[in-house]
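Comment thread on ticket #2218

A.B. wrote:
> Attaching the input chain for the structure job we discussed in standup.
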Amino acid sequence: MLAALDPDAVAAFLKTADLASFTRAAEALGTTQSLVSTRIRRLEERLGKVLLQRHPRLVRLTAEGERFLPAARELMAAQGKALTVFAAAPERMAIGLSEQAVGAEIPAVLARLAAAHPSVVIALRIEPSRALEAAFERGELDVVIIRRLAAGRSGEVLREDGFGWFAAPRLIRRPDEALPLVSLMPDCWLRQHGMAALDRAGLAWREAFIGGGMAAVQAAVAGGLGVSPLAARLAPAGTTDVGRDWGLPDLGTSCVVLRSQVATPRANAFVRELAAAFRAG
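C.D. wrote:
> Ran it. Output below, let me know if you need it in another format.
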């Protein structure tokens, strides 16, 4: 008969599996990479199974890890429920996320975090970075993750992204025609940045598609409706950066920035995990 599993080891396994990184898992858990690795190794020894494939830059689940994952989630959910029986009232957090900063995976990430923190109630706003930062300054939001052209004087830089002009391979550049542009809503600063760069370069362009969210923009680009200025890590699968081949202006880089004004231990733990989910690996 197996001895009881160490909840800390199971939590380390889940965070590493979710974030595909020992480093980011350690950040999310507020501990060290070596301790995360040690706990998972002991869990594997207890189970007699290898749960993770370890590579220098990537961590993947083995077949045994995939099989263990649902049970591990159930175990931690049950522990979380038991720990909150006598807990204080739920804590509400107003969070603002920019899709141009974190991509279209927002629902999946927040669902995972909400399951791990049942005592935190999330009020979410998904808006352009400028609107979110203004709301944060007014005190309407507790946490924002936004994109800036420069790091700025406040906030924690989670990563720096390079930009490109992305299009589907089937889209053909016709020099005698205006460039078909795919972008987010008019108040998106990256849309404005791209248009201004084209104007400075003296290149004609036309609006081919305006999306209400990143999923719509990505679908339009992948479908060959036009070219879009995007962070490389948010470009749809199968698309390529055509900027150099098409003679389009360089868009430079930008920073993904976290700003937070939470103070309680519960809220800080949540923000730490949120940051780890969107930090460069």
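A.B. wrote:
> Thanks. Noting for the ticket: The first strand starts at residue 52 and ends at 54.
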